[in-house]
Amino acid sequence: MNPMELLRSNLSRVRIPEPTNRIYKQECCISFDTPRSEGGLYIDMNTFLAFGKDCVGWNYEKTGNPIYLHIKQTKKVVSEDRPLKKPTRLAIGIDGGFDNNETEYEETHNIVIFPHCETLPFPSVELPEKVRLAVDAILMAEGAERKEQVSAWIADKKLISPYAMNLQQIHNGIIVPPSGWKCAKCDKTDNLWLNLTDGMILCGRKNWDGTGGNNHAIEHYKETGYPLAVKLGTITADLEAADVFCYPEDESVLDPLLAQHLGFYGIDFSSLQKTEMTTAERELDQNTNFDWNRIQESGQEVEPLFGPGYTGLVNLGNSCYLAATMQVVFSTRSFCSRYYMEQNLKMAFGTAPADPTVDLNMQLTKLAHGLLSGKYSVPAPEIDTVNDASSISNAIQEGIPPRMFKAVIAASHPEFSSMRQQDALEFFLHFLDQVERANVGKPESDPSRSFKFGIEERILCSSGKVAYNRRLDYILSLNIPLHEATNKEEVDAFQKLKAEKNTEGKKLSDNEIVRPRVPLEACLASFSSPEEVHDFYSTALKGKTTAVKTAGLTSFPDYLVLHMRKFVMESGWVPKKLDVYIDVPDIIDISHMRSKGLQPGEELLPEAVAEDEVVSNKVLANEDIVSQLVSMGFNHHHCEKACIKTSNTGVEEAMNWLLSHMDDPDIDVPISQEAQIAELLVSNVDQSKVDTLISFGFQEEISRKALKASGGDIEKATDWIFSKPDASGSSDMDATSSTAPTPVDAALPDGGGRYRLIGLVSHIGTSTQCGHYVAHIYKDGRWVIFNDAKVGASINPPKDMGYLYFFERINS
């Protein structure tokens, strides 16, 4: 049978795609091969899934689908003086976006029939009409990979504000000059915002690091309710580029009537020049920051590295948090073994569902093989436009794009689905949670267990009796005790110099800046040190008292992850990101941090009865904390609510809660009414939320109690459990033995307490939701920097600037 006859006999296996079908044509579903790879890409004309040359045969064996569209792209010579097109939207390489001057490719198409790979050229009038229609539809459709990428960009696009369409402007005679602006309430001359309702010019918000304005613009909105403001200095003839902010929506927005609204105050936008950075541009300005350059090792001759384990990850748009985290994760033996050594691509594809792009096991295996095989870690050839030849003139690699993995891991998390920057810690915890769920019932094959350990808290009541609470965690989150800095004299001298320079109106140079240096040992010690727990309800005393809490680890994981808490409250209760170095040794010993459990002679607190529970759950605001907060200018009712919400833990905790909940719609709801509403909301606790908390290592009874106390919010429920060490009563206590593990942590890996530093994730930026993440990993006897797609030998790894530190247990 000739190829054409073979094709006609299999026409029933060819489908013409509908508009709703997902068509993959840019990347193999189970490897990182593309149409530009040596073997091109094969699209299954029945399922519209794409496969590389090495994988397409597995799909034929699994599905029996014999007809494929083969796409092959080869580079073509491009003239050096090709004109650049003007961009019309903020994107790269898509219609209307920036011309990234990429090499152009010639694309060829063929119909391939399996199992013997007979080939028919396309286009051809001899092909059956159904095949021609199907191929045309596939080629004209936007690929599923591109659709997801563009939709994520559009999701973050500024929207038209409804407040702009019917904005009422007040005739008060204000005419805004073209320059020379100053805040109406202070001396600020930059970061100024023009309220479009009354023409008031006021300064912007104060940033975490103390820079920015004095909050006069937002305070004006809270007093007046006037919704829109435009940042002066961002207004030019291109009005869409102006930074317009909507306070009720708490978002940057578009104002289609901005020209009219500016004209009301005599502003001729066509003559204005840009003098201020927009909010987004201010984040990009971090590139010139000294710390930024240090973390990325900018300005240093970094030797590019290639081969197995040295593959970069393409930045998909603010995805550096994912890239840095996954590079370290796949440098661990547990994940390397599970998804690379013990499982090849064919095995993972064989057990995957019909659509392997939505299977976490498949996409993790794909990512593991992409990173660890070395197949894609090769220097990227550059086109020589004169000699029409490929030459490796720049020893850099293209990296692999983790699109399908990101889509799968973010499916249950809307924030990670976006193109916005995210917290690497939050992503790491979400990732391990998803891996654990995917391996439920198979603990022996769950690599996330290598990070899990038990924490035991000992509560010593003033009655002399004790309680033991246990929980599981993946990370050890550490406070940074600045008072333990080893260079206090140098820091004090620097603070004096800084004050002198500020008085003189001069700026400090990078080499003049001195940061506190705190030993990691001091951070670990602060975790274990005794801490007073106020308003602890004692079942022995039948009343509230002050207890002392200490903490230790019930097991030592294979990999210990330390999270440095760098956001604190400064003197004057101003929130600030700690500008501090942590001196981290290559080897640490935490043997002394192992908890001892119930000791001989210790007496456990009696179990709580229903009456005790009612009394202990009734929290009243601590008046001392309330008065301190009120003295700072906060609303009395808001302060009471903050104290109750944080269980009177302290002024700092209440302040943190206030700052993050000031704009909550229910902030003014009376506490008694709020409690009634919460009671109605949680009369039936959502079982799926209970299951989620159980998966974190909490017991079902405590999980239900926490969800009831927090209105059904999982995050608040977790905080509630951690802030109430007596919440679990005696049900969590190890009352039988001082050494035997309880069922909570019996199955966890355990061993000695000596660890070696193998990696760190560093972050620069004013918050974890902006800036940039970079990973440094100890491989093959040297430190390596993984900066998105760039991989090279590290000259000066910033061990003292880490956000997350990864340690591997040293097995004696």
Please write out the topology:
Layout: H1 3-9, E1 41-44, E2 50-52, H2 56-63, E3 67-75, E4 105-113, E5 118-122, H3 129-140, H4 144-155, H5 162-165, E6 192-195, E7 201-203, H6 216-224, E8 228-231, E9 244-246, E10 251-253, H7 258-263, H8 279-284, H9 290-296, H10 320-329, H11 333-341, H12 345-351, H13 360-372, E11 382-384, E12 389-391, H14 403-409, H15 414-417, H16 424-438, E13 453-460, E14 466-473, E15 476-478, H17 488-504, E16 517-519, H18 520-528, E17 531-538, E18 543-553, E19 559-564, E20 567-570, E21 574-577, E22 581-583, E23 587-589, H19 610-617, H20 623-631, H21 636-645, H22 651-661, H23 671-681, H24 687-695, H25 700-709, H26 714-723, E24 754-764, E25 772-779, E26 782-787, E27 790-793, E28 802-809
Parallel strand pairs: 15-19, 16-22
Antiparallel strand pairs: 1-2, 1-3, 3-4, 4-5, 6-7, 6-8, 8-9, 9-10, 11-12, 13-14, 13-18, 17-18, 19-28, 20-21, 23-24, 24-25, 24-28, 25-26, 26-27
Helix pairs in contact: 10-16, 11-13, 12-13, 13-14, 20-21, 21-22, 24-25, 25-26
Short descriptors:
5-stranded antiparallel β-sheet, alpha+beta, 26 helices, 28 strands
Model description:
- By secondary structure, this protein is of the alpha+beta class.
- The strands form 7 sheets. Strands 15, 19, 23, 24, 25, 26, 27 and 28 form an 8-stranded mixed sheet that branches. A 5-stranded antiparallel sheet has the order 2-1-3-4-5. Strands 7-6-8-9-10 form a 5-stranded antiparallel sheet, with helices on one face.
- Strand 13 (about 455-460) and strand 14 form a beta hairpin.
- Helix 21 crosses helix 22 (about 650-660).
- The radius of gyration is 30 Å and the shape is globular.
- Residues about 90-95, about 285-290, about 385-395, about 570-575, about 675-685 and about 730-745 have low confidence and may be disordered.
